Amino acid sequence: MINQAKFQAFTLAEVLITIAIIGIVAAMTLPSVIANYKKKEIPIRLKKFSSTMQNAFNMAKLEHGPVESWKFPEHQMDFDEVNEFAHTYLYPYITGIKDCTSKEWICQKMSQNMYTATSYTIPVHIFADGGCFLFVTGGANENSANIHFTYDYNCLGKPNEPDKDIFTFYLHYSGDTMSFRSGNFPSYNSSGLLKKRSELMNLCKNHTQTHNSGICSALIEYDGWEIKDDYPFKI
Question: Which positions make up the signal peptide (predicted)?
Answer without folding.
Answer: none
